[in-house]
Write the C-alpha coordinates for this entry.
Amino acid sequence: MPSDEFVVTPWHVEGEIDYEKLIKRFGTEKITPELLKKIVRITGEAHFMLRRGIFFSHRDLGRLLDDYEKGKKFFLYTGRGPSGHTHIGHLVPWVFARWLQEKFDTTLYFQLTDDEKFYAKQNLSMEQTKQFAYENALDFVALGFRPEKTKIIIDTQNIKTLYPLAAQVAKKINFSNTKAVFGFTGETNVGMIFYTSLQSAPCFIENRPVLIPLGVDQDPHFRITRDVAPKIGRPKPALIHNIMIPSLSGPGGKMSASEESGTIYTTDSPEAVKRKINKYAFSGGQPTADEHRRLGGNPDIDVPYQYLRIFFEPDDKKLRQIYDDYKSGRLLTGELKAILIEKVTEFLKSHQQKREKAKDRLEKFFFEDR
Ligand code: TRP
Protein backbone atom coordinates (compact mmCIF):
# COMPACT_ATOMS: atom_id res chain seq x y z
CA MET A 1 0.00 0.00 0.00
CA PRO A 2 1.63 3.32 -1.06
CA SER A 3 1.83 5.81 1.82
CA ASP A 4 -0.78 8.18 0.42
CA GLU A 5 -3.21 5.35 -0.21
CA PHE A 6 -5.94 3.77 1.87
CA VAL A 7 -8.17 0.72 1.77
CA VAL A 8 -11.91 0.68 2.52
CA THR A 9 -13.83 -2.58 2.15
CA PRO A 10 -16.47 -4.18 4.40
CA TRP A 11 -13.84 -6.46 5.94
CA HIS A 12 -10.74 -4.31 5.89
CA VAL A 13 -10.10 -0.62 6.53
CA GLU A 14 -6.53 0.67 6.47
CA GLY A 15 -4.64 3.92 6.14
CA GLU A 16 -5.70 7.52 6.44
CA ILE A 17 -8.91 7.89 4.49
CA ASP A 18 -9.33 10.81 2.12
CA TYR A 19 -13.13 11.07 1.97
CA GLU A 20 -13.18 13.27 -1.13
CA LYS A 21 -11.18 10.60 -2.93
CA LEU A 22 -13.36 7.85 -1.50
CA ILE A 23 -16.50 9.51 -2.85
CA LYS A 24 -14.91 9.45 -6.29
CA ARG A 25 -13.59 5.91 -5.92
CA PHE A 26 -16.96 4.53 -4.81
CA GLY A 27 -18.99 6.78 -7.10
CA THR A 28 -21.22 8.12 -4.33
CA GLU A 29 -22.43 11.69 -3.93
CA LYS A 30 -21.42 14.28 -1.39
CA ILE A 31 -24.10 15.68 0.91
CA THR A 32 -24.32 19.22 -0.47
CA PRO A 33 -25.54 22.31 1.41
CA GLU A 34 -28.68 22.17 -0.79
CA LEU A 35 -29.42 18.58 0.22
CA LEU A 36 -28.83 19.49 3.84
CA LYS A 37 -31.34 22.33 3.47
CA LYS A 38 -33.87 19.91 2.05
CA ILE A 39 -33.39 17.59 5.04
CA VAL A 40 -33.85 20.50 7.43
CA ARG A 41 -36.96 21.64 5.59
CA ILE A 42 -38.52 18.19 5.99
CA THR A 43 -37.32 17.16 9.45
CA GLY A 44 -37.20 20.58 11.07
CA GLU A 45 -33.57 20.26 12.18
CA ALA A 46 -30.08 19.32 11.07
CA HIS A 47 -28.80 16.57 13.33
CA PHE A 48 -25.30 17.46 14.55
CA MET A 49 -23.88 14.47 12.69
CA LEU A 50 -25.17 16.02 9.48
CA ARG A 51 -24.02 19.54 10.34
CA ARG A 52 -20.54 18.25 11.08
CA GLY A 53 -20.18 15.97 8.10
CA ILE A 54 -20.09 12.75 10.14
CA PHE A 55 -22.68 11.67 7.59
CA PHE A 56 -20.99 13.00 4.50
CA SER A 57 -22.10 11.04 1.47
CA HIS A 58 -25.16 9.35 -0.03
CA ARG A 59 -26.78 7.57 -2.92
CA ASP A 60 -30.16 8.78 -4.15
CA LEU A 61 -31.12 10.55 -0.92
CA GLY A 62 -32.34 13.60 -2.83
CA ARG A 63 -34.67 11.52 -4.97
CA LEU A 64 -35.94 9.57 -1.95
CA LEU A 65 -36.79 12.82 -0.15
CA ASP A 66 -38.48 14.29 -3.22
CA ASP A 67 -40.64 11.18 -3.44
CA TYR A 68 -41.31 11.38 0.29
CA GLU A 69 -42.60 14.92 -0.11
CA LYS A 70 -44.92 13.66 -2.81
CA GLY A 71 -46.31 11.16 -0.33
CA LYS A 72 -44.19 8.10 -1.08
CA LYS A 73 -43.11 6.74 2.30
CA PHE A 74 -39.94 4.71 2.87
CA PHE A 75 -38.65 2.42 5.62
CA LEU A 76 -35.23 2.22 7.30
CA TYR A 77 -32.68 -0.55 7.48
CA THR A 78 -29.23 -0.88 9.04
CA GLY A 79 -27.20 -3.62 10.69
CA ARG A 80 -24.20 -4.91 12.51
CA GLY A 81 -21.80 -7.79 12.04
CA PRO A 82 -21.55 -9.38 15.51
CA SER A 83 -17.82 -10.09 15.64
CA GLY A 84 -17.30 -8.83 19.18
CA HIS A 85 -18.66 -6.64 21.95
CA THR A 86 -20.19 -3.31 21.01
CA HIS A 87 -17.90 -0.32 21.19
CA ILE A 88 -18.83 3.34 21.16
CA GLY A 89 -18.02 3.72 17.44
CA HIS A 90 -20.85 1.32 16.59
CA LEU A 91 -23.38 3.57 18.23
CA VAL A 92 -22.83 6.42 15.76
CA PRO A 93 -25.03 5.15 12.89
CA TRP A 94 -27.52 3.62 15.33
CA VAL A 95 -28.13 6.91 17.11
CA PHE A 96 -28.56 8.56 13.75
CA ALA A 97 -30.94 5.80 12.65
CA ARG A 98 -33.06 6.47 15.71
CA TRP A 99 -33.22 10.14 14.79
CA LEU A 100 -34.31 9.25 11.26
CA GLN A 101 -36.93 6.90 12.65
CA GLU A 102 -38.34 9.63 14.86
CA LYS A 103 -38.37 12.22 12.11
CA PHE A 104 -39.89 10.01 9.44
CA ASP A 105 -41.99 7.91 11.83
CA THR A 106 -41.23 4.66 10.07
CA THR A 107 -40.23 1.02 10.52
CA LEU A 108 -36.55 0.24 11.10
CA TYR A 109 -35.03 -3.19 10.48
CA PHE A 110 -31.74 -4.01 12.19
CA GLN A 111 -29.88 -7.00 10.75
CA LEU A 112 -27.42 -8.93 12.90
CA THR A 113 -25.24 -10.96 10.55
CA ASP A 114 -24.02 -13.83 12.71
CA ASP A 115 -23.50 -15.91 9.56
CA GLU A 116 -21.31 -13.24 7.93
CA LYS A 117 -18.95 -12.99 10.88
CA PHE A 118 -18.78 -16.77 11.12
CA TYR A 119 -17.70 -16.88 7.46
CA ALA A 120 -15.33 -13.90 7.73
CA LYS A 121 -13.48 -14.68 10.97
CA GLN A 122 -11.39 -17.83 11.15
CA ASN A 123 -11.40 -17.83 14.94
CA LEU A 124 -15.13 -17.37 15.58
CA SER A 125 -17.60 -20.22 16.03
CA MET A 126 -21.27 -19.88 15.23
CA GLU A 127 -22.08 -20.05 18.96
CA GLN A 128 -19.83 -17.05 19.52
CA THR A 129 -21.26 -14.91 16.73
CA LYS A 130 -24.76 -15.75 17.95
CA GLN A 131 -23.81 -14.74 21.47
CA PHE A 132 -22.34 -11.46 20.20
CA ALA A 133 -25.52 -10.87 18.19
CA TYR A 134 -27.49 -11.04 21.43
CA GLU A 135 -24.99 -8.81 23.25
CA ASN A 136 -25.00 -6.24 20.42
CA ALA A 137 -28.82 -6.27 20.31
CA LEU A 138 -28.87 -5.14 23.96
CA ASP A 139 -26.84 -2.04 23.07
CA PHE A 140 -29.07 -1.33 20.13
CA VAL A 141 -32.29 -1.59 22.16
CA ALA A 142 -30.73 0.50 24.97
CA LEU A 143 -30.62 3.48 22.59
CA GLY A 144 -34.38 3.87 22.93
CA PHE A 145 -35.97 2.43 19.81
CA ARG A 146 -39.68 1.79 19.84
CA PRO A 147 -40.56 -1.93 19.75
CA GLU A 148 -43.69 -1.42 17.60
CA LYS A 149 -41.61 0.05 14.81
CA THR A 150 -38.24 -1.66 15.23
CA LYS A 151 -37.44 -5.21 14.21
CA ILE A 152 -34.18 -7.03 14.86
CA ILE A 153 -33.35 -9.66 12.27
CA ILE A 154 -30.78 -12.32 13.10
CA ASP A 155 -29.65 -14.10 9.95
CA THR A 156 -29.48 -17.65 11.33
CA GLN A 157 -32.79 -17.17 13.18
CA ASN A 158 -34.81 -15.44 10.47
CA ILE A 159 -33.53 -17.31 7.45
CA LYS A 160 -37.06 -18.43 6.56
CA THR A 161 -37.94 -14.83 5.70
CA LEU A 162 -34.55 -13.87 4.32
CA TYR A 163 -33.82 -16.80 2.06
CA PRO A 164 -36.45 -16.28 -0.66
CA LEU A 165 -35.40 -12.61 -0.91
CA ALA A 166 -31.69 -13.48 -0.92
CA ALA A 167 -32.28 -16.06 -3.66
CA GLN A 168 -33.90 -13.43 -5.89
CA VAL A 169 -30.77 -11.32 -5.50
CA ALA A 170 -28.27 -14.19 -5.74
CA LYS A 171 -29.58 -15.22 -9.13
CA LYS A 172 -28.65 -11.78 -10.52
CA ILE A 173 -25.11 -11.57 -9.11
CA ASN A 174 -22.46 -13.40 -11.05
CA PHE A 175 -19.14 -14.49 -9.66
CA SER A 176 -16.94 -12.16 -11.70
CA ASN A 177 -19.02 -9.23 -10.52
CA THR A 178 -18.73 -9.95 -6.80
CA LYS A 179 -15.08 -10.92 -7.29
CA ALA A 180 -14.34 -7.55 -8.88
CA VAL A 181 -16.14 -5.62 -6.14
CA PHE A 182 -14.60 -7.42 -3.15
CA GLY A 183 -11.37 -8.86 -4.54
CA PHE A 184 -12.39 -12.48 -3.78
CA THR A 185 -9.98 -15.21 -4.88
CA GLY A 186 -10.11 -18.94 -5.45
CA GLU A 187 -9.39 -19.38 -1.73
CA THR A 188 -12.41 -17.36 -0.54
CA ASN A 189 -15.07 -19.55 1.09
CA VAL A 190 -18.35 -19.72 -0.79
CA GLY A 191 -20.28 -18.38 2.23
CA MET A 192 -18.57 -15.04 1.70
CA ILE A 193 -19.33 -15.12 -2.00
CA PHE A 194 -23.05 -15.63 -1.36
CA TYR A 195 -23.22 -13.26 1.58
CA THR A 196 -24.03 -9.98 -0.26
CA SER A 197 -27.37 -11.57 -1.19
CA LEU A 198 -28.25 -11.93 2.49
CA GLN A 199 -27.25 -8.38 3.36
CA SER A 200 -29.42 -7.27 0.42
CA ALA A 201 -32.47 -9.24 1.52
CA PRO A 202 -33.83 -6.77 4.13
CA CYS A 203 -33.88 -4.05 1.44
CA PHE A 204 -36.79 -5.93 -0.08
CA ILE A 205 -38.59 -7.04 3.07
CA GLU A 206 -41.28 -4.39 2.57
CA ASN A 207 -42.83 -3.36 -0.67
CA ARG A 208 -41.65 0.26 -0.64
CA PRO A 209 -38.32 2.13 -0.91
CA VAL A 210 -35.69 1.87 1.80
CA LEU A 211 -33.12 4.28 3.25
CA ILE A 212 -30.00 2.76 4.79
CA PRO A 213 -27.79 4.72 7.20
CA LEU A 214 -24.43 2.92 7.26
CA GLY A 215 -20.67 3.12 7.60
CA VAL A 216 -19.18 3.89 4.21
CA ASP A 217 -17.21 0.63 4.31
CA GLN A 218 -20.51 -1.21 3.71
CA ASP A 219 -21.26 0.65 0.51
CA PRO A 220 -19.85 -2.01 -1.87
CA HIS A 221 -22.55 -4.52 -0.86
CA PHE A 222 -25.31 -2.10 -1.68
CA ARG A 223 -23.68 -1.00 -4.91
CA ILE A 224 -24.39 -4.56 -5.98
CA THR A 225 -27.90 -4.50 -4.47
CA ARG A 226 -28.65 -1.32 -6.40
CA ASP A 227 -27.56 -2.94 -9.66
CA VAL A 228 -29.76 -5.95 -8.97
CA ALA A 229 -32.89 -4.09 -7.75
CA PRO A 230 -34.33 -3.06 -11.14
CA LYS A 231 -33.62 -6.55 -12.49
CA ILE A 232 -35.99 -8.02 -9.89
CA GLY A 233 -38.51 -5.21 -10.23
CA ARG A 234 -37.68 -3.50 -6.93
CA PRO A 235 -36.67 0.10 -6.07
CA LYS A 236 -32.97 0.78 -5.58
CA PRO A 237 -32.08 1.31 -1.91
CA ALA A 238 -31.01 4.85 -0.99
CA LEU A 239 -27.98 5.20 1.27
CA ILE A 240 -26.53 7.74 3.67
CA HIS A 241 -22.90 7.09 4.68
CA ASN A 242 -21.00 7.94 7.85
CA ILE A 243 -17.22 8.27 8.12
CA MET A 244 -15.19 5.55 9.84
CA ILE A 245 -14.76 6.21 13.56
CA PRO A 246 -11.03 6.36 14.39
CA SER A 247 -9.67 3.96 16.96
CA LEU A 248 -8.54 5.46 20.23
CA SER A 249 -4.90 4.98 19.32
CA GLY A 250 -5.09 7.09 16.24
CA PRO A 251 -6.15 7.87 12.73
CA GLY A 252 -5.70 5.17 10.17
CA GLY A 253 -8.18 2.37 10.55
CA LYS A 254 -11.61 2.33 12.15
CA MET A 255 -12.26 1.42 15.72
CA SER A 256 -12.10 -2.33 15.74
CA ALA A 257 -13.96 -4.55 18.17
CA SER A 258 -11.06 -6.99 18.19
CA GLU A 259 -8.37 -4.54 19.33
CA GLU A 260 -8.72 -4.23 23.09
CA SER A 261 -6.43 -1.26 23.79
CA GLY A 262 -7.76 1.04 21.10
CA THR A 263 -11.37 0.41 21.95
CA ILE A 264 -13.91 1.67 24.48
CA TYR A 265 -16.62 -0.92 24.94
CA THR A 266 -20.15 -0.06 26.04
CA THR A 267 -19.66 -2.30 29.07
CA ASP A 268 -16.41 -0.66 30.22
CA SER A 269 -16.17 0.56 33.83
CA PRO A 270 -15.37 4.21 34.62
CA GLU A 271 -11.86 3.07 35.62
CA ALA A 272 -11.31 1.33 32.29
CA VAL A 273 -12.55 4.38 30.37
CA LYS A 274 -10.19 6.64 32.25
CA ARG A 275 -7.24 4.30 31.86
CA LYS A 276 -7.78 3.70 28.14
CA ILE A 277 -8.25 7.36 27.27
CA ASN A 278 -5.29 8.52 29.33
CA LYS A 279 -3.02 5.73 28.15
CA TYR A 280 -3.97 5.12 24.52
CA ALA A 281 -5.82 8.13 23.09
CA PHE A 282 -3.86 9.62 20.20
CA SER A 283 -3.12 13.25 20.98
CA GLY A 284 -2.68 16.28 18.77
CA GLY A 285 -0.88 18.04 21.59
CA GLN A 286 2.75 19.07 21.99
CA PRO A 287 5.25 16.87 23.86
CA THR A 288 5.43 19.19 26.90
CA ALA A 289 2.92 21.51 28.56
CA ASP A 290 5.26 24.47 27.98
CA GLU A 291 5.47 23.83 24.27
CA HIS A 292 1.75 23.20 24.13
CA ARG A 293 0.99 26.57 25.72
CA ARG A 294 3.38 28.25 23.31
CA LEU A 295 2.57 26.43 20.05
CA GLY A 296 -0.95 25.12 20.62
CA GLY A 297 -2.38 21.69 19.78
CA ASN A 298 -3.96 20.20 16.66
CA PRO A 299 -7.59 19.26 17.34
CA ASP A 300 -8.05 18.01 13.77
CA ILE A 301 -5.92 14.94 14.45
CA ASP A 302 -6.60 14.68 18.18
CA VAL A 303 -8.74 11.62 18.90
CA PRO A 304 -10.34 12.88 22.16
CA TYR A 305 -11.43 16.01 20.28
CA GLN A 306 -12.71 13.90 17.39
CA TYR A 307 -14.79 11.75 19.74
CA LEU A 308 -16.39 14.89 21.15
CA ARG A 309 -17.12 16.09 17.62
CA ILE A 310 -18.45 12.77 16.37
CA PHE A 311 -20.59 11.75 19.33
CA PHE A 312 -20.12 13.17 22.80
CA GLU A 313 -20.55 16.96 22.47
CA PRO A 314 -23.64 17.80 20.40
CA ASP A 315 -23.51 21.47 21.45
CA ASP A 316 -21.75 23.41 18.65
CA LYS A 317 -20.83 26.35 20.84
CA LYS A 318 -19.17 24.21 23.48
CA LEU A 319 -17.34 22.20 20.84
CA ARG A 320 -16.09 25.37 19.15
CA GLN A 321 -14.78 26.65 22.48
CA ILE A 322 -12.87 23.41 23.05
CA TYR A 323 -11.47 23.58 19.51
CA ASP A 324 -10.27 27.15 19.90
CA ASP A 325 -8.85 26.61 23.37
CA TYR A 326 -6.93 23.53 22.31
CA LYS A 327 -5.60 25.10 19.15
CA SER A 328 -4.41 28.21 20.98
CA GLY A 329 -2.73 26.13 23.69
CA ARG A 330 -4.96 27.35 26.53
CA LEU A 331 -6.41 23.86 26.93
CA LEU A 332 -3.85 21.16 27.68
CA THR A 333 -3.94 17.56 26.44
CA GLY A 334 -4.67 16.18 29.92
CA GLU A 335 -7.52 18.65 30.32
CA LEU A 336 -9.03 17.75 26.97
CA LYS A 337 -8.81 14.07 27.86
CA ALA A 338 -10.51 14.82 31.18
CA ILE A 339 -13.43 16.45 29.32
CA LEU A 340 -13.85 13.34 27.18
CA ILE A 341 -13.49 10.97 30.14
CA GLU A 342 -16.29 12.79 31.94
CA LYS A 343 -18.57 12.73 28.89
CA VAL A 344 -17.97 9.04 28.15
CA THR A 345 -18.39 8.03 31.79
CA GLU A 346 -21.64 9.95 32.08
CA PHE A 347 -22.96 8.45 28.85
CA LEU A 348 -21.98 4.88 29.75
CA LYS A 349 -23.49 5.09 33.23
CA SER A 350 -26.90 5.74 31.77
CA HIS A 351 -26.38 3.45 28.77
CA GLN A 352 -25.44 0.52 31.00
CA GLN A 353 -28.61 0.94 33.04
CA LYS A 354 -30.74 0.97 29.90
CA ARG A 355 -28.76 -2.01 28.60
CA GLU A 356 -29.68 -3.98 31.74
CA LYS A 357 -33.35 -3.11 31.32
CA ALA A 358 -33.14 -4.13 27.65
CA LYS A 359 -32.61 -7.75 28.72
CA ASP A 360 -36.29 -8.09 29.64
CA ARG A 361 -37.52 -6.19 26.59
CA LEU A 362 -35.38 -7.81 23.92
CA GLU A 363 -37.98 -10.38 22.90
CA LYS A 364 -40.36 -7.62 21.80
CA PHE A 365 -37.85 -6.50 19.18
CA PHE A 366 -37.08 -9.78 17.48
CA PHE A 367 -38.51 -10.15 14.02
CA GLU A 368 -40.93 -13.03 13.68
CA ASP A 369 -40.93 -15.10 10.52
CA ARG A 370 -44.33 -15.56 9.01
N1 TRP B 1 -22.01 -6.25 7.27
C1 TRP B 1 -22.30 -5.32 8.31
C2 TRP B 1 -21.15 -5.30 9.31
O1 TRP B 1 -20.24 -6.05 9.26
C3 TRP B 1 -23.59 -5.64 9.01
C4 TRP B 1 -24.80 -5.18 8.23
C5 TRP B 1 -25.81 -5.98 7.76
C6 TRP B 1 -25.14 -3.86 7.86
N2 TRP B 1 -26.73 -5.26 7.12
C7 TRP B 1 -26.36 -3.95 7.16
C8 TRP B 1 -24.53 -2.63 8.06
C9 TRP B 1 -26.98 -2.80 6.66
C10 TRP B 1 -25.14 -1.50 7.57
C11 TRP B 1 -26.35 -1.59 6.86
O2 TRP B 1 -21.16 -4.48 10.20
Q: What stands out?
A: The chain has a mean pLDDT of 95. Residues 10, 78-81, 111, 113, 116, 199, 212, 214, 218 surround tryptophan (CB under 6 Å). The CA atoms of residues 94 and 295 lie 38 Å apart.
